[in-house]
Amino acid sequence: MVYKFVELSIVTDESIEEAVNAWVSRGWELEGIRFAMSESSRRPAMAFIAFVRDKAEPHEPVRGVPRLVSTVDDGDKR
Questions:
Q1: Distance of CA 52 to the CA centre of its chain
Q2: 7 with 40: CB under 8 angstroms?
Q3: pTM (2 d.p.)
Q4: Could you read off the pLDDT of 13-42 as tens digits, one per residue?
């Protein structure tokens, strides 16, 4: 199994729905949601959403990390 965790700093029904729909449409299965509460408010300060999927499924590229480019010499003929 492979796990994915998404952190939400703005916790609304819309932000949770958007995050869950986005990752489920990419093949991830919702595992659960945990809330971090603030002492001064009844509303959660943050939410952590856990997703899971089989390891055999193709992985998405990690944001901010470039994909590997082949360095094999193809016999450049200039």
A1: 10
A2: no
A3: 0.69
A4: 999 999 999 999 999 999 999 999 988 998
